[in-house]
């Protein structure tokens, strides 16, 4: 309990590596399960070959891992720390190292690296420390159903509340143990590097090139390659469907009006118009359409619409929603 150490953990974003958890000063190790409510954690067996579980723990002062296989690198000669659990038992860490895993949230795919995670084989479950997560600007939000780790409005990690009211992150083992390869492999003939060199060619096709001697100069060494290619996954992702209903609806006429400009049309109207401008009131769905000859007529038609609706409804337009086209964002608008 009096041992001191320095911790640092990092989340890697594919295009912009971001520090996730950092502590550059020595800290005092405290009980990770000091709250009696964590007693349930000691009875939850999460060691499964099919999946790996992490629990978001507000009582843990460090990230604690019970499975040696999850570490991409582990220093078993490092100084041990003492952890006091809820039943009063004292556990000693048996190493410190790095763990890589990948998460997929609504905001994209994130490769996460936990540096200086402690190895405690006696512990019955893996714990992610809220204290460590929040030390470098990340926020941890809890509600009835889930826990969300985010920064700058980007969600990096989500945990679901289980039957024991514990917030659990569940993933397959291949999303944990294999992802160190993307950063640490120095073998110039490994399959993953050839996958990138050949424009992210299918893995089996690359093996076939070598097996059938179709191409010269390709050598493949026995090397543990990454299970999933982040770039390939991203390019195959489909766009989320648009919601069927809006989250916000106006409660009064002209509180919110939707507008859009369409054109130029290939065929002009009888009067020589080739654009049309729409205004749709969100509350009443009252709609107006104006025919335009040029884009720069949008401002005059907007003034005309505001004057007309003020006379008709006795109210003034509050919010105009558009696609931020150039005709809507000029200084005069």
TrEMBL record:
Integrase catalytic domain boundaries: 249-333
GO molecular function: nucleic acid binding; peptidase activity
Keyword Protease: yes
Keywords tagged on the record: Hydrolase, Protease
GO terms for biological process, alphabetical: DNA integration; proteolysis
Gene3D superfamilies cross-referenced by the UniProt entry: Ribonuclease H-like superfamily/Ribonuclease H (3.30.420.10)
Protein name: Copia protein
